[in-house]
Fold this sequence. Notes:
Blueprint: E1 2-13, E2 16-28, E3 33-37, H1 44-51, E4 59-64, E5 67-68, H2 74-84, E6 85-88, H3 100-110, H4 115-128, H5 133-136, H6 145-157, E7 163-167, H7 175-191, E8 195-199, H8 203-208, E9 211-216, E10 219-222
Parallel strand pairs: 3-8, 3-9, 6-7, 7-8
Antiparallel strand pairs: 1-2, 1-4, 4-5, 9-10
Helix pairs in contact: 3-4, 3-6, 4-6
The site of magnesium ion has 4 residues, from helix 1.
Amino acid sequence: MLTVENVSKTFSTPGGQVQALKDVNLSVKTGEFVSIIGKSGSGKSTLLSILGALDNPSTGSIIVDETEINKLSGGNQTQYRAKKIGFVFQQYNLVPNLTALENVMLALEFGGYPSSSRLDRASQLLASVGIEEDQQQRRPSRLSGGQQQRVSIARALANQPAYILADEPTGNLDSATGKKIFDLLHDLSRSQKTTIIVVTHDLEIAGKTDRTFTLKDGKITTK
Ligand SMILES: Nc1ncnc2c1ncn2[C@@H]1O[C@H](COP(=O)(O)OP(=O)(O)OP(=O)(O)O)[C@@H](O)[C@H]1O
Ligand SMILES: [Mg+2]
């Protein structure tokens, strides 16, 4: 269970204060698959980063399984991310000098996976998102945007996280591949009770999730 209470986020910029989130309240149950939609700049990535403890709110709290994650020390926030969260970044954030396979193996290492089974598991995860063996040996710069996106999804799934936070995970995929990834996430939410929060611009995808939140100028307008 994840609860967002009265969360606001203000950024200071040379041009003045930007209020990216304004008094956001929402709650997502364990095993739920929800989507967040809204125009560019409405605060979607900001909200996802705060849910993943990659950033802290200016005010308000985020309670995940009874822990107020914004109150944790930096080290404990890192633990929270490693243990509970699979994050799919809008810009992928793969390690540039590692191959696709090594990127996923690194995540498994952080998650405490035994070294003897990392290679096999990483390869299987990549195959499950349609990254074939020769592509697994390539660095991100030698993969297409959609392939990098799928590597970042495989990495997010690596440690069987209880929560997957995905920022436009199908944004760079053709519709058939996007549907495959969506189905994979849907399966996880149903079979493993993984809680999934996806940011999307695709209303068809949003329509297939359990619930959709709409952000407008930093505020939730529908539930
Ligand atoms: N680190 C930052 N410093 C200053 N302003 C920021 C920062 N991050 C986000 N913003 C501002 O906060 C607002 C929300 O940004 P955010 O990235 O959350 O939007 P988004 O809904 O994810 O947009 P998109 O669909 O384009 O990805 C925007 O006005 C943006 O310029
Ligand atoms: Mg964004």
